[in-house]
Amino acid sequence: xxxxxxxxxxxxxxxxxxxxxxxxxxxxxxxxxxxxxxxxxxxxxxxxxxxxxxxxxxxxxxxxxxxxxxxxxxxxxxxxxxxxxxxxxxxxxxxxxxxxxxxxxxxxxxxxxxxxxxxxxxxxxxxxxxxxxxxxxxxxxxxxxxxxxxxxxxxxxxxxxxxxxxxxxxxxxxxxxxxxxxxxxxxxxxxxxxxxxxxxxxxxxxxxxxxxxxxxxx
Length: 218
Known about the structure:
8 helices, elongated, single chain, mainly alpha
């Protein structure tokens, strides 16, 4: 029997085919979530066979049926409708693209990241606070290091979708860096105006961090 050279691609293609009735954005989000979960499982369990990881993730038809039902396209899930994807036996049910599985069964891939989701949010928020508190010392250096590290941790975290990560990095890392650079190059006024601008930026960072915390995955 012919064996596929890329079982992960075949698996995702099967999910995409079975979920072809989903809106394009929901379908792509579902595929991105599954691909990320597979990548995390392979990184955490390098000795596990990819076939076992895919089997634990669930049957593509069942996953697609659950996503269709969650989108209001398929029939109601459960005994009288489309099959519901519950992951491995005894694992909590998955609630669609907005709520990917976080299994706790022995042998099932853990979906929680190794770094607590609060860590990158605090680093991104406190980066500006260090610069404001110690403008002439190590504050700017520490602030830049915090900002870079926080952005990297945010981008590599499993707690947010790709769109949420992109938005978070743009607002909390790239935008403040660009604004501060332009302000310094243009020789902007110091004193009260600079303090007010920093406070507004800090409020923006804190607000974005709160938003990311609220939309994070468990």
